[in-house]
Every structure is written in C-alpha cells, then in structure tokens.
Amino acid sequence: CVYKYVVWGRNRVALVATMVCCVMVVVLVSVSVCSAAAEEKEVDGINQTVEGGGGGGGRKLGAAEVRPFEVSVPEGVLEDLQRRLANPRLPHMEGVEGWELGTPSGYMKELVAYWRNSFDWRAQESLLNQMPQFVTDIDGLAVHFVHVRSKASNAIPLIFVHGWPGSFFECSKVLPLLTDENAELSFDVVCPSLPGYGFSEAPKTPGYNPTKMAEMFNKLMLKLGYSKYVAQGGDWGGMIVARLGAYHHDNCVAVHTNFAPASPPFTRGTFSLSLSMSLPLSFSPL
Known about the structure:
The chain is of the alpha/beta class. The chain has helices spanning 2-8, 12-53, 75-86, 105-117, 121-128, 175-178, 210-223, 236-247, 268-278, 280-283; strands at residues 66-69, 133-138, 141-148, 156-161, 187-192, 229-233, 252-257. The chain has a seven-stranded mixed beta sheet with strand order 1-2-3-5-4-6-7. Strand 4 (156-161), helix 6 (175-178) and strand 5 (187-192) form a beta-alpha-beta unit.
C-alpha cells in the first residue's frame, strides 16, 4: 500500500494513515515479542526460586515466635454444651412437615439427640491433632495454622486458605497428596485459620477484609521463611488469595482458586463487582 501511494501519489491522507498503521503494527509486534521473552524469563526465575526454596521453611524460627498448638477443649465447655442440649427450646409448628418455614422440629430433635448421645468430641480432637498445628502472632492477633513440610528438597511452599463456612480442616484430605515427596510436584503446605475462625483469635476492631487478611497471611509466610510461594483458596479464601497475587506478587508468585465469581451477561454493575473479586488491583476499592 505504501509503495502504491508513493509512486502514484493519489491520496496523501491515505498514505499518511497507512504509514501510521504500519508503524503501529511494528511497535505492537515488538512489544509482544519483548513481553513474551520477559515473561518466559520471569517464569523460569520463579520456578528456580520457589522450587529451590522449599523444604526448609520454618526451620530457622525460635519457639518464642511460632508455638506448637494442640486442640484441647476444657471439660467444662463440653459439660456446658451437654446442659444446653438437654434443655433445648425448639419451635413447634402444627401441620408443617417440610422446610418451607425453616428447619423442621422433628429434624432438629434428631440432630440434638445425635449431639447429646452419639457425637464424640474427644475423638474429633484426636483426629484434628494428627495434623501439625501452630500459633503465631501476626499484627497483634494469634493466628492458628497447620504446617506440613514435604521431605522433597525442591518442595514448593503453598498457602491453602479456607472460606466460609469452612475451616483449616478442609486441607486434611489433600495434605498427604500435596506433601508426597515422590510426586512430580511436592509442596510445603501452610493452612491458616482466618482471623475469628477456628482457633485463630478474633479481631476486636473492624477492617479485617480480604485485603487485610492477605497482608497478614503474606506476613505469616515470610515469618515461616518462605519469600516465594504459591496460593490456593476458595470462597473467602479465593478473594484473599486473589489479593495475595495482586498486592504481594513479589512473594506470592502464583494463585489457584476454586472460586470464580460470575454474573449474568449485560449487567455491567454486577460484572464489575465480579471482576473486583478476581482482579482487585484494577477494580476493587478494598
């Protein structure tokens, strides 16, 4: 096109426009090639840093910084629960059998009877205590977490963040798989309890949104000796790990989530809200 307009000079405006388009194409191609090369180099660096740094997190910390934790509910708490279960105040609705007005009384009575006569809390404690648990202070709060290290020398540090209504117990079944030293990828797993959940201390002031929790969990990983790590989260955990990747990408080098907010098409406000959950750096005011 450029040759045609230079030789015949038929349309100077078209000539200028064509030349500008050609220059833009060249620039865009150059930027794309450079970005791809930089990204490939960065990914290689991430793999070397993360895989080479696994297996050793937490070993240089003193007992005063990270304290072992064992689930042990006082007997008085369990006795108080039994007293409450022995004297429940259940609503009674005549002629209602289904769930249209809430939980049916018959179902609630069965549940109360199970908790009174069948549920064994001490057995659950033993099950929970099979996982290595710890507590440490982050921003003035006692944060509870599970920490299992792989024996693989190139294990990748992973923070596993639960949601609501969930707990650190969500990671229990996948721990053996993630920390398997013979697997193609092996991980050092850190599974914290959100502030106010499980055995983490509850905040006494407002402001503990996903951004704040991401900041706390990044500090936790750094405190355990993991300067580079990856993250997984669902529900609230999904929003938290999204912010780990957005605001703490110098440390959190990859994010996986099983929580992907979506919205109906052509609803701009809702779509923006969904994007703010997944892409907080660009869309979220938090």
